[in-house]
Amino acid sequence: MTPDEIDAALQAAFNRCDAASCPLTETQKQILLQIVEQIQGKPHSGVSDIANPLDELTSEELEAFLQFVKTEEQQDRTWKVQLLNDWLLENDSGAVQFIRDRYGLQWLYRVESHHFDKYSDFGDALKLRVGDRIEISNALWEWVQADGPCQREWFPCTVLQVENMNNSDDSFTNCVIRFSNGAEYEVQGIYEWNRYNWRWPQG
Fold first, then answer.
1. CA geometry: angle at 157 spanning 154 and 160, to 5°?
2. Whether residues 31 and 86 fall in one domain
3. How confident is the model over 183-197, as pLDDT tens digits?
4. What is the mean pLDDT of residues 76-99?
5. Cβ distance 173 to 192 under 8 Å?
6. Fewest beta carbons within 10 Å, which of 35, 57, 146, 203?
7. How far apart are the C-alpha atoms of 203 and 195, rounded to whole Å?
8. 145 and 116 assigned to the same domain
9. Does one domain contain both 119 and 48?
């Protein structure tokens, strides 16, 4: 969608809320408009790699925030959506209310999936979802060695399907991805035995 189409869609949504007798407050409208403006102006040059926003949190704040994210993901909810919903509905966010009070929307927008990689004790709490952008290593289809002719390379792709597989002996997760050239590929055991071969985009 073009910026004008996005703006028109938002204005139509605001009007529908008004017509349904559920008008948004001016603050809620401003939050939505700010998010759209930030998305439209998002740099694609890897600027997000300059600083990890999670480093700005105190140790207590970081612990509370990581626990919140882990809990939301375990309940199959997107943590960022949950926070934004709280903000839009003016609900208290509990142990992570400090994010809204102290850091705000700009900080929240800067947090990307790859920022969690720094915290090894966080593990793989972030689940893959349809539409996520990830990078896949050529080690999935090539013999890659540190000193061999084929070096590890990373290719951007989009998640098309995530499916949990269960049989009598084992359970694992398969993931179908699509590369930018349109080719599709199924990664079996994406969490279990192929975790080393994918990563969140680095910028």
1. 145
2. no
3. 999 999 888 888 888
4. 90
5. yes
6. 146
7. 19
8. no
9. yes
Percent of the chain at pLDDT exceeding 90:
27
Q: Check whether residue 80 and residue 27 sit in a common domain.
A: no
> How much is the average pLDDT of 139-160?
86
Alpha-carbon distances, residue 202 vs 55, 155, 172 (angstroms): 16, 11, 26
Residue 183 and residue 143 share a domain? yes
Q: Which residues, listed in sequence order, are joined to residue 40 by a DSSP beta bridge?
A: none
**What are the contacts of 58-64 at 24+ separation with CB within 8 A?**
61/98, 62/119, 64/95, 64/96, 64/98
pTM: 0.56
pLDDT at 37 over 70: no
Max distance between CA atoms of the chain, in angstroms, equals: 66
* Distance from the first to the final alpha carbon of the chain: 22
- Last residue within a domain, chosen from 125, 152, 181: 125
Q: What span, in angstroms and rounded, lies between the C-alpha atoms of 68 and 108?
A: 14
Residues 101 and 143 in one domain: no
CA angle in degrees (0–180, nearest 5) for 11-111-105: 45
Q: Which domain holds residue 30?
A: 1-38
Task: Match 């790699």 to its residue by tokens.
Answer: 49
Calculate mean pLDDT across residues 63-84: 89
Segments of the chain assigned E as strands: 133-137, 154-166, 171-179, 184-187, 198-199
Domain count, the chain: 3
Residue type at position 150? C
